[in-house]
Amino acid sequence: MRILSRRLCAAGFDTLRFDYFGTGDSGGETVDAELGGWKDDILTALRELKELSGRARIVIVGMRLGATLAVELAPRLAADVESMVLWEPIISGSQYVKELRDWRSGHHMRAFDLAMSGASDTAASELSGLLVSSSFVQGLTSIDLRSQEITPAPRVLTIFSETQNPDFKIRSMSNDSETVTLKASSPWKDSAEQEEGLPVEIFERITEWLR
């Protein structure tokens, strides 16, 4: 996401990246995080971006779970969110949790359900290496975009890679929506220094669509 932000800045966009509560450089612990709180983080970031940039046109670019949270947050979004770019949103939370379990199993790591010495009942799960509450996992599992009739913004671009395409489309408020499948792989890693191995094709597609 750092590389994409730099490309958008070079194209004339003011950008703001943020870490959700309990992750990255943000305060708090993941075990205290909830999906509802992460949605509030998105709203806070949008308000700050408006204040810092003074721009009237707001675009949300979300990746995986971030894209899904942005879609679910649509009814609470301000009218000045003109466009959304959704990069491989999580369509089924239960399938996503299963994938994370399978990934951990394949890497010979500890089981998904983790007995923590001295931990409370709400802190009994580890997800992708992060200790989270059982309610957080339940929130993930309940995600099902197929069951929701949501039109999150006037313009919507949804991007899937060939390996992740679930044959699913998210509509826009004005029917100005596009779903594309690109051959680029899904790295889900980032580098602040170089683009080698990153899906430059997707970066270029996003930048072109937003212009």
UniProtKB/TrEMBL annotation:
<dbReference type="GO" id="GO:0016787">
    <property type="term" value="F:hydrolase activity"/>
</dbReference>
<dbReference type="Pfam" id="PF12146">
    <property type="entry name" value="Hydrolase_4"/>
</dbReference>
<dbReference type="InterPro" id="IPR022742">
    <property type="entry name" value="Hydrolase_4"/>
</dbReference>
<feature type="domain" description="Serine aminopeptidase S33">
    <location>
        <begin position="5"/>
        <end position="101"/>
    </location>
</feature>
<protein>
    <submittedName>
        <fullName>Alpha/beta hydrolase</fullName>
    </submittedName>
</protein>
<dbReference type="InterPro" id="IPR029058">
    <property type="entry name" value="AB_hydrolase_fold"/>
</dbReference>
<keyword id="KW-0378">Hydrolase</keyword>
